[in-house]
Amino acid sequence: LEEWRGVDIPNGPEIDDWFGRPTVAIQREYVDPAGKLVWLAMFGSHGPQSYHLFEHTPASCYPLSGWAMTAEDRDSIPIGRGAIHAQRGFAQNGIQRLVVLYWYLWDNPQRNPDNGVLSIRISAPVVESDDATLQLLKERFIPLLFTDVIPWHRFG
Q1: Which of 117, 136, 112, 146 is CA-nearest to residue 39?
Q2: pLDDT tens by residue, 85-108
């Protein structure tokens, strides 16, 4: 991804346990020339196991790993002709802080998880400030993954 260099993070057996053997399970770590880190995780399923994706959000999983969610809200990430509407969270573990953005991509306009859904989570450690880290994700990293958003309306 342009200046970002990525490596795969191997999926451990806990991924199958948590997500019910997902069809898609990708975890990667990216680093830019200045040494800034970003973690990308994507998990996707269809059928009954797709409902596991909604049970494993940062709010439910991070505390189990020693992280406290200090704030949660929604955010809009301008992309091409539209925006990605994501959940935004801030987490802390001792003096370490994280910023996380996550959302879902659907295989169909009806948003029926049985037909397929992909969970996307992008996070980064806070080095300078929460705002600088959020800006890094929204302006320098995510637009490299998603170059456009096709506008559509679920209802009507």
Answers
A1: 136
A2: 999 999 999 999 999 999 998 877
